[in-house]
Amino acid sequence: MSEIFETPLLNELQRDSTDPLAEPIVVRNAPEQIVERLVTAVALGVYVPGQALPPERELASLLGVSRATVREALRRMTESGFIEQRRGRNGGSFVLEGWRPSSADLIRRHLLPNWSRFEALFDARQLLEPVIAATAARRRGDGDVAALSQALVDYREATDREESRVADERLHRAVAESTHNPVLVGLSAQIRTRISLELGAEPYTPEIRRVAAVQHGMLAEAVIEQDPGRAHSIALEHFGLTEGLVRDLVARVGEAATRESDG
Amino acid sequence: MSEIFETPLLNELQRDSTDPLAEPIVVRNAPEQIVERLVTAVALGVYVPGQALPPERELASLLGVSRATVREALRRMTESGFIEQRRGRNGGSFVLEGWRPSSADLIRRHLLPNWSRFEALFDARQLLEPVIAATAARRRGDGDVAALSQALVDYREATDREESRVADERLHRAVAESTHNPVLVGLSAQIRTRISLELGAEPYTPEIRRVAAVQHGMLAEAVIEQDPGRAHSIALEHFGLTEGLVRDLVARVGEAATRESDG
DNA sequence: TATTTATGGTCTGTGGACCAGACCTTATAC
DNA sequence: GTATAAGGTCTGGTCCACAGACCATAAATA
């Protein structure tokens, strides 16, 4: 009887419909899932452009699949221009620099058509992250302080966009982990990943990085000093900033696109 | 290039690890997913014990799979004692009454071993649902009032545990839907489903149902009257009640289990 | 009572996904 | 110049899902 409770619990954050039987079953085959994991890993900064993914044989054993399957995943990623495979000793699968479409292009082709989904995602983030931040401030333990300070230092020392992204991810994860609740950690990571993935390059201009650095500093500080109220309001403002930026960007590009199609 | 953005976005709310490559790839095959959907549908009250699921051929076409695959899923569910299949005209796959293990049994065999996961889930719920409720109060439109009042009436008119569960689900969904944010609706539904699934029977004693009815009434009212602060605090209290109940239950059964194994 | 019909139950052949593992090719390190 | 660490190729096998035909049963209905 009880094995039915062992079914991996439903994991679909956003099935479009509300009726469990309304949508077709999709068997997510292995290569597809592997691509997703690898793209996620890059989005989260585990591998940065120029770096090689683990060798095929190692990936196969890490992921518990055959090498043929890993190769199929890598083949698709090569085809998409996401990685480049090089042979010989010191070869490997290298994450390409320019795999993200240009900002304007991305927005026109991806962001605009799916704008309502993004809006909901940003909106949810701005509602949920402050709660997570406040909870983190309330619950952080002594062990969390080190991770928070370290992430903050990394962020301040980041010199380019890529390093900023990675440090940003670490800092927000450190905050989420200070809640000591894996569900919240997972939720926060999932929101970040989805935004990072779908958005590609977040608009990390030097100016924005400066503002964000200040906010990150204040956020980490509020958590360290166990001040939930401040953590909440800083997070609110911080995530509002990003949302505002993207909104402006989309508006500008959207207008441009409209003008073009009119002309 | 852009097709890589079309990968169904990562959906795993709670992968245990934080490293995308640390865990094996699991190909969730079709029957497994179908079982999950059907169990979910029952957990959400779409089908109640005694009722028949749709006929196999219809399920196959709804879910976009072959009948053989549906049959495999139903075979597993029959094996687990979840449904009973009857042949002939007016036959079908009937949800069994007693498919949930008894409370104490369930707790001993399932809740105790996974207690930390539940704790995190309840904790997250108590943090997130009040925000959702407050947001619902802030954003509810005229169209939401009808759904809220109707759900409330259903809840009050519910006579047995099963009807209460269904009405409860509807009411909380109506609240979530008043936020007009599909991400929040999905999140709330997912938390509810997981708790409902893993918990099996929530402790719906008549007494609890009376208290919950009052709270539900106040919650719906606060949302209808667009009072975010009240909605927040009522939700906090309401979800605290459930958590407290389960916590007590587990403590009692846990003690009993300890005494037994000592004796 | 006989027939129709809506359901579950059974079978067969086909294609594709994934696996295990051996072996080939290339480019670098030593 | 050789050893080595990577990617590239091939084979044979297993299992899963599909399509579709057909069988068996029990209730509704004529």
UniProtKB/TrEMBL annotation, chains A, B:
Pfam families: FCD (PF07729), GntR (PF00392)
CDD domains, alphabetized: WHTH_GntR
Keyword DNA-binding: yes
GO molecular function: DNA binding; DNA-binding transcription factor activity
Domain of life of the native organism: Bacteria
Entry keyword annotation includes DNA-binding: yes
Keyword annotations from UniProtKB, A to Z: DNA-binding, Transcription, Transcription regulation
UniProt domain HTH gntR-type: residue ranges: 28-98
InterPro entries with a match to the protein in the record: GntR_C, TF_FadR/GntR_C, Tscrpt_reg_HTH_GntR, WH-like_DNA-bd_sf, WH_DNA-bd_sf
Protein name in the entry: FadR family transcriptional regulator
Species classification: Bacteria, Bacillati, Actinomycetota, Actinomycetes, Streptosporangiales
